[in-house]
Structure formats: C-alpha cells, structure tokens
Amino acid sequence: MRIVALIFFVAVSLGGIATRPALAEAARVSDVGAAASALEEAMLMPELLDVMAREGAAYGGDLDRRFLQGGGGSSWQAEVERIYAPERLGPLFHAAFAAELDQIGVDTAPILAFLGSDLGQKIMRLEVSARDALNDDGVEESARAMAGRLEVEGDGRYKTLRRFVDANHLVDMNVSSALNANVAFLKALSASAGAKTALPDDEILAQVWAQEGEVRGETDSWLMAFGTLAYGPLSDAELELYLAFSETAEGVALNRALFAAYDRLFVTLSGELGGAVGRWMVGTNL
C-alpha cells in the first residue's frame, strides 16, 4: 500500500511575523474542536484531502488489477471513490486529530502563529503541491533522481533534508502507519473473503512484518524525493528555520498528533478497502 502520511507539518511560535487575523483569533479559542479546525485550515487540509482522494482512486485501480483481475469495472471504482470521498475524509480526520490534540494537550497558539505566517503558508502550499505532483510517475522519477544526485554529490541541501527527516522520525512514523494500514487491510480482506480463505492474525502479522525492510527503503526514498521537490523553492535560511521549528516542543507535539490522526484515518480506510475487496472476490466467485 502507498505510504500513508508523508506530510511534514511542524510549527512553533515565531516572534515578529504577522499572522492572519482569523488564525490569531482562533489561537485563543479553548475548545479543542475549534482549535483543530483552525489548524486544519492553516494546513490547507481540504486541498490535501482532495489529493488523497485522487491517490485513493488510483490505488483502487491497483487493487482491481491485483485482486479482481481487472474485473471490478465502474462499480468497483465507485466504491473506492465513496470510501475516499473528500467530504468523508474531512470529518474522519478532524475527529481523530481533535482527539489526539486533546490527549496531548498541546498549546495551539504558537503553532497557529507559525502556520499563519507568510513562511508557514508558503511551506504548506509547497507541501500540498509537491504531494500532488508526485502522483505523476514522471515527476516522481525525476525527483528521486535529483535526490540521488544530491546525495552522491554530498550537497548541503540534501544533508539538511536528511537532518529534517531524521530529526522528525519521519521514516519510522510513516513505516509504522503503512504497516498498520496493511494489517487492517489484510484482516478485513481475510474476514470478508470467507472462512475457507481466512488467515490467522499471526500469519497476517508475519506477512506484513516481512515487508518492513522494503517499506522502509521505499519510504526513505520517497521522503527524500518529496523534500527535494517541495522545499526546492525555499532558501537555505528558510529550510533551517523549518528544521529548527520541528525540534521544538510544539513542533514535536503537532507531528505526533498528525501522525496519530493519519494512522487512525488510514487504518479505517484500509480496513474498509480490504473488506470491499473480500466481498467483491466472494461475489465474483459465486
């Protein structure tokens, strides 16, 4: 399954940088649901969920070819689009994100101060744009090649991106989310495909864990390609600021809440996809 999170949202208080009035006002709202909504607006979540919906539709095509021998047709695609509908993803993500923020107890005021700044909004737009662009195979191949060249050359920008990825534990968190999603998919597939094909949980876990090395390598490569593409327009100073922000208590807390929320979301979606594939397989074989 495609890596699930792959978004680097971090933030801290940024003294002296003007913020959008609406975001600054929202920072004073004590209700965690309202705070989560303000953060989602600042992180351009509607635009990001639109990208994820398109990714989900493409992934549905992969599942059709792999499990249904390409026989799912328009009915299968409609089911996938229903599961990944942006108007459905929004509430699912919001509920999970608000719950995580509430559990962590992070102060959202300094986070919103950064996300609402000119630099914060520039970074958010670059991240969403790069995430969308990498769905084009040619763009992804080019970005991976560029990242590889920068690594071989010992380029300073590559080293900064590597520090960013490592400091935020992005590989570990994305790998964990991807494996959790794969487990949910296989469990639901096994349960819905019938008793004759059901797999015990320990076998499912073994199958998924056997993929860990491959998933880790793919995740690392994708992250470096993403960073190379997304942050190319940033100056070295801006990228260093972003790295510094990510290492603050607020940045760490936000990343933790985001990845936990994404994990919940994609476990839910993967389970639904696995169940749908299983039911489709059973129906096809009747």
Describe it.
- The chain is an all-alpha fold and 286 residues long.
- The protein has one domain.
- Helix 3 packs antiparallel against helix 4 and helix 9 crosses helix 12.
- It starts with 20 loop residues before the first helix and ends with a helix.
Fold topology:
Blueprint: H1 21-26, H2 32-42, H3 45-67, H4 73-83, H5 86-104, H6 108-115, H7 118-133, H8 137-153, H9 156-167, H10 170-192, H11 201-210, H12 212-230, H13 236-246, H14 249-285
Helix pairs in contact: 2-5, 2-6, 3-4, 4-14, 5-14, 7-12, 8-12, 9-12, 9-13, 10-11, 10-12, 10-14
Low-confidence stretches: 1-30
- The DSSP helix count reads 14
Overall average residue pLDDT: 86
Gross morphology: globular
**What integer value in Å does the Rg equal?**
20 Å
Distance between the termini: 27 Å
Question: Which band does the percent of strand residues land in?
Answer: under 5%
Helix content: over 70%
